[in-house]
């Protein structure tokens, strides 16, 4: 059922943090508008750090599932995507 493909891992690793950003919105700030949430995300550095940490946690969970099921190529793709997301998160944090 689960593929063992690096491209599949890159796709999963890309959408995992996006799912984490949306999941954090529903978990913490359901009363706010989603646009206000995004504005708050980019205006408050401490809030951005919390959201990015939660988002990267999603990738850790996905990575662990695939490594424990011996899908190493997919795990490699998730790891590469996580590294890219980490660099993007650092750039956003220090540039804005």
What is the residue-averaged pLDDT?
A: 87
Structural class: mainly alpha
The biggest beta sheet is recorded as: none
Rg calc = 14 Å
Quickly count the domains: 1
* Strand fraction: under 5%
Give the termini separation: 41 Å
Low-confidence stretches: none
Order of helices and strands: HHHH
Alpha plus pi helix count: 4
Number of distinct beta strands: 0
Share in helix = over 70%
Shape: elongated
Layout of helices and strands, plus pairs?
Layout: H1 6-28, H2 34-43, H3 45-68, H4 72-95
Helix pairs in contact: 1-3, 1-4, 2-3, 3-4
Q: What would you note in describing this structure?
A:
The protein is mainly α. The protein has one domain (6-95). 84% of the residues lie in helices and 0% in strands. It contains 4 helices and no strands. It has helices at 6-28, 34-43, 45-68, 72-95. Helix 1 (6-28) packs across helix 3, helix 1 (6-28) crosses helix 4 (72-95) and helix 2 crosses helix 3. The radius of gyration is 14 Å and the shape is elongated. The relative contact order is 0.23. The model has no long low-confidence stretch (mean pLDDT 87).
């Amino acid at each position: 059922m689960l593929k063992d493909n690096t491209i599949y891992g890159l796709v999963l690793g890309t959408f995992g943090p996006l799912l984490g950003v949306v999941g954090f919105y529903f978990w913490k700030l359901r009363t706010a508008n989603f646009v206000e949430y995004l504005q708050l995300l980019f205006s408050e550095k401490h809030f951005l750090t919390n959201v990015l940490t939660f988002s990267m946690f999603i990738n850790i969970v996905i990575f662990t599932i695939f490594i424990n099921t011996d899908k190493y190529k997919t795990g490699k793709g998730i790891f590469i995507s996580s590294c890219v997301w980490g660099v993007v998160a650092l750039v956003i944090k220090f540039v804005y």
